[in-house]
Amino acid sequence: MKYELYYWPEIQGRGEYVRLALEEAGAAYVDVARGARGTAAMMKLMDARDTPPFAPPFLKAGKQIIGHTANILLYLGARHGLAPKTEAGKLWVHGLQLTIADFVLEVHDTHHPLGPSLYYEDARPEAKKRTAAFWDERVPKYLGYFEGLLNSNGGAYVTGRKLTYVDLSLFQIVAGLRYAFPRRMKNFENEIPGLVGLHDRVTARPNIKAYLASERRIAFNEQGIFRRYKELDR
């Protein structure tokens, strides 16, 4: 079965967490909106009756359409060896991914503190305040939590010796923060050596390494979730 991933074609965004899982699994998939008339096809599915997805990303697996990043990863993880086999383990990893989703929203809100309808330039003073609180309070809270999980289990990955989709997502978090806040992240990385090591291990995995070097990996840019604004990185 070839999966169909539907997400905006210009950005990594929330769709990147799904792409990383598909790439690591070696799964056959097409990034639909990056093809000819792909965005139109995506919008058509969102306008369908019965059970349309609310927003991208969503994944078409056969006749089934699965929406929301964490929900898609729950589905893929069980089918491609990227999640524990037990029900309790699957739910634990799913909960961790939901925590990552909360953090991703907080990253987004550093440059859109008053909501997505305003441009960054319309909320620059508020963005500076939000970013200061983000680095003073929220980054240590979230990344400190995952650093603690790595330390407590003594393994190479969050749940131990076996990689899960949560590890791929944490790789993306570290990579994204390095892009958006290179100065702040450089100063903070001494606090999270475990996550830095995890990032490096994921980078070296053959399928991920090949993906990162390919045209399939969209570059970070100032339209996505992780955006680089020099005035916020002080």
Main beta sheet: 4 strands, mixed
Strand order within the widest sheet? Answer: 2-1-3-4
Report helical residue fraction. Answer: 40-55%
Q: Find the count of extended strands (DSSP E, 2+ residues).
A: 4
CATH architecture of the domain at 87-205: Up-down Bundle
What is the alpha-carbon Rg in Å? 18 Å
Q: Using the alpha-carbon principal axes, give the shape.
A: globular
Q: How many helical stretches?
A: 9
CATH class value of the domain at 87-205: Mainly Alpha
Could you please say which CATH topology of the domain at 87-205 applies here? Answer: Glutathione S-transferase Yfyf (Class Pi), Chain A, domain 2
Low-confidence spans: none
Structural class assignment: alpha+beta
User: What share of residues are in beta strands?
Assistant: 5-15%
H/E topology pattern = EHEHEEHHHHHHH
Overall pLDDT: 96
Amino- and carboxy-terminal Cα gap: 47 Å
Describe the structure.
By secondary structure, the chain is of the alpha+beta class. The chain has a domain at 87-205: Up-down Bundle (Glutathione S-transferase Yfyf (Class Pi), Chain A, domain 2). Helix content is 55%, strand content 6%. The chain contains nine helices and four strands. It has a four-stranded mixed β-sheet with strand order 2-1-3-4, sandwiched between helices. β3 and β4 (64-67) form a beta hairpin. α6 packs across α7 (182-188) and α6 (165-180) crosses α8. The longest helix has 30 residues, at 124-153.
